[in-house]
């Protein structure tokens, strides 16, 4: 259920998360918990023999000696199997051994459990999977005591490390081996890195016996760095964060290449549209909004129809809110919507772009003259846009190319299986619509959507995901249309065609996508515009992939002493910075009393509650416990969990209601819908929970229930 501020109710219907992976993971689990209580888990009783390929043997050697290491193998190379092997040997040879396997996506918990750890280790050892929807999560501490191998998301472990309740609490030192899947995420504020930060702190203080670390990755990436030197620094940083050396195959590269063949790469380049009346008209409308705003505001905006422009209007909206100008804030929100339409025009059909705008404006409430201006502007141009959008002779030429790329492969290869990666969830549904309304494609292709697990419009539940993948395996579907985030780690059958369409991603995502094309003679195609940004990025990524390999080789060449010194230096630095940040945070939290900070709606600017009404749950969710708050919003609509920048809706939802312990229903506030005003009116309002200058109290269930019952007169 999402919370909809009453002032904007009719037009806001999505819910968005702030860009904070921590919060997202936690919430996903909570939601999934609500959605899929009682989901069954396959029981596999047959013990399978565990044997490794030569290159896997090679890369596990360091780990088998009990030393920390990162295993670097490409997608499809069998990293998880290698980890199962290490776990097996570790359990055999270590007294009081206890292993935790950490993953970064909820679906990987079950996948690793059912496909890898349970079948190979289940007969000899107690293996437990703890996902968001299992009640075991509430007894994490106790479960850990009675089991040999625990598989869970990093967030669940992090919560348990923080939780002082005896049933839930664990210490890092309770484990003897920590396996970290997709360990290149162990960086900055990622939850993997928070867990490893505890490890490093203990290591530097020489506290307790620390577990062995085993990281797994298909690519540590270059962290956005473009020079060899910086890439090496990044790889070293990852090594330092994981306190590990990085291991890859040296002697069996050819075997690896046989097992994981690289697809043939193809660029399907399209010429630019010569005329684009629909896009031009959108731009002229945006120009009118520019003129409506105070002059000089528009000077700071970059080129329309680009992600730079999007970033600029996002900043502009914030600036508007800070300065208390609803005019600027609202215009910026609407400009973002127009820009979105331009971005859609650039990849999908014009009608899709038009529809997005039409939906946006159909739900709008008019609060002041800014709203009236914006609404009128759209209404006056609506018919004209519609007409231009339906003119086939200016249609997006990329689609024609996409059609021929798909047809070529699906006609030639019987039993073809393909994945089409697109940028956003909305993109996937527009593309599905396009495939289904295209008679020629219908002869060969039966397409379905695969997006990340979650709840809400265009989102899938884990079961739906499984069902779609199953149909794909059986062949009743032969083309999956997917967002680039959905695919990481999903167990999808081999494909002979992978198409990347209108995508700008980093080198890691690119490698992971190409890793999906694993069948013999498979094709990896990039459909993009001549001289466009996608092509440019694709080439950059190829270069970065090479750069990563070179950087790793260089790091591996360091003498153990030199490596050790560098890593130690980075670790000391990281611990120092983290402690300093914690100190600053504590100071900031003491600046005001909660009741002094007023919370305003970001859409209509009116006050809705104070800091006194807010509590946190497990340090990550912010709920409002004041009963009168419920009168300020409606519930309804769907819940979105994806957090890609491009896919953000310029609505201003407040958050969603969460059910706590199956009894209390509490509105959980997303900071994107609010601003936080300090008592000193000269201070600019804060916009994120992480920046608020008061101590948010921890939610106390007992207390909440007793006031609630007290309020109903049921106390005694
Ligand atoms: C910016 O606004 C001024 C009027 O305020 C207008 O003359 C100018 O064309 C605008 N620039 C752009 C790039 O829209
Ligand atoms: C709309 O999309 C087409 C095709 O990709 C592109 O050539 C054109 O520049 C786009 N229009 C705008 C205004 O971005
Ligand atoms: C609940 O919110 C209302 C309106 O903001 C406020 O007047 C009231 O004092 C709050 N109640 C409590 C118990 O804080
Ligand atoms: C929660 O509230 C109850 C009742 O007011 C109190 O006894 C208990 O100590 C509180 N728990 C925490 C962790 O503060």
From TrEMBL:
Pfam family, one: RIG-I_C
Main location: cytoplasm
Any one of the GO BP annotations: cytoplasmic pattern recognition receptor signaling pathway
Residues of the Helicase C-terminal domain: 405-576
Membrane-crossing residue ranges in chain numbering: none
Recorded family membership: Belongs to the helicase family. RLR subfamily.
This enzyme's EC code(s): 3.6.4.13
Keywords: Antiviral defense, ATP-binding, Cytoplasm, Helicase, Hydrolase, Immunity, Innate immunity, Metal-binding, Nucleotide-binding, RNA-binding, Zinc
Subcellular location: Cytoplasm
GO molecular function: ATP binding; DNA binding; double-stranded RNA binding; hydrolase activity; RNA helicase activity; single-stranded RNA binding; zinc ion binding
Gene3D superfamilies hit by this protein: 1.20.1320.30, P-loop containing nucleotide triphosphate hydrolases, RIG-I-like receptor, C-terminal regulatory domain
Originating species: Danionella cerebrum
Designated name of the protein: RNA helicase
Residue span, Helicase ATP-binding domain: 60-238
Record's catalysed reaction(s): ATP + H2O = ADP + phosphate + H(+)
Domain RLR CTR as annotated: residue spans: 587-706
UniProt xrefs under CDD domains: MDA5_ID
GO cellular component: cytoplasm
EC category: hydrolase
